[in-house]
Amino acid sequence: MATENGRTGPRIPDPGRSLVVGPWPDSVLSLVAVLPIVTLLGGLGWLGWSAQRSAVTSFVLAAALGFGLFGLSPEGGLVAITKGMLLSLFVLLILWAALFLQILLDALGAVQTIGTAMVRAARWPAVRALLIGWGFSGFIQGFAGFGAPVASVVPLLQAAGFGGVRSAAAAMVGHSWAITFGSMGSSYFAIQLVTRIPGEVLAPWLGILFVPPIMITGIAVLHILLGWRGLYAGGTLAVAVGAVMAAALYLAAVLGAGAVASIIAAMVGCAILLTVAYGASRVVGVSAGATSETPRSNIHLAMLPYYLLVVLTLGAQAGPLAGLGRSLMLGIDLPSTTTGLSYQVAAEAAYPRLRLFQHPATIITMAILISAAAYRAAGRWPEGAFTRTARMTYRRSKTTSITVLFLVMMSLVMADSGMISSLALGLRALVGPAFPLLSPFLGVLGALMTGSNTNSNVAMGALQTETALALGLTPALIAAAQSVGGSLGAGVSPDKAVVGANAAGVPGQEAAILRLALPYSLLAAAAVGVEVWLLSRWLG
Q: What is the DSSP-derived secondary structure letter of residue 132?
């Protein structure tokens, strides 16, 4: 059956018709097919396994069920595993490059320079809360992941006069709107790859669905840090700035700049908030001191890598590199396969269609090299910086990389064996018309358990879109709901609470931080669920 981008994909069952031809009823296959996901989430949530152990175990179980009950042939299994390895490489290249950039800029003092200037610029508590806990945290998430926004922002919030537990909770909630398009779009590309929905189809829905979360997370930061008086003082400002940030996010995404959509939206939001801070200081006669102790040249040097990421990304999509970027594509041709239960998977050409000059890892590498030259010219480049950064990147990404690899292979084995389609039929029977309301919460659940929107999208994305097809819903809308929910859940996951507690100097307070942060994420997810339900009814 043709997917939304015109390519052929796995056969989607017609409503009311048996999924496969074989001795097993659909209900039995649906119950069996859910076991790898239950193992993944249960291992993380109840058994206390590491993400790596849970992913490896779930992959092994998915492969055993695929070969043993769903009729996956050796050739089909090899093709599915090859797809998983190629897709994981596509995503991991982004994660590795983004983490390398984050560690390098931390070593160069760029993040601290920018953050300190913002603390000095904003004297009004409501503006400080929004600027640091919402705008700047989203800005850092735009190019980095692995808890970097929480680790970087919590000390700045404390320096601005806020308490440790509240600072950690605010940083967690405050950056959650930026995660799907964060880390140079790693989660955004992951949901495209596992659902086979191209960015130009998915981006508008993501932009629409992120409008309420952007505003709600801004309001939440005010309430967490300043209570009801914070909402009274800055609630209107948060809604107004959030609307502009949402518009910037939408435009960047639909114009093909998804890799920097969070960065652009956060830069716009921070610029507005800094303007408001400057205006407020003029009214009350207090010097803003934005850069009085930080030379303007240092600010722009610290911002140089981010300027380059935006310019190079836009140039690769619509500038002089666009034609070259579209023409140079890497991938492997893979054959079609059919399971023993007659589930058919279409052939793939140039899989996974990695466009070298448009891939975020290439753009990040170019930005790093140009920035390194500028830092050297300014006499600010420490010797051995690349070597130390590479070693730290390896240490910090090793476990995550193995987890992503096995999660992606699990997802592809489940998809190509027909297990995902069986699960979709089961969900259709279980929840029916209520599925749009629940869809964002599946994303939240996956992210809370795995600590990652990318992992949540990989584990749940195909299931969400196949359920949408079984229910006659728009797959791109449901895929967007999955990723928005995953973004909100990843921001307040337990591992982020650990990072926040350590950054705030309050180890052992992780439970208190989670109790404070989680309700705001669930409220935002509920708003997205209502939005998806209304849109699905409007689309008919």
A: I
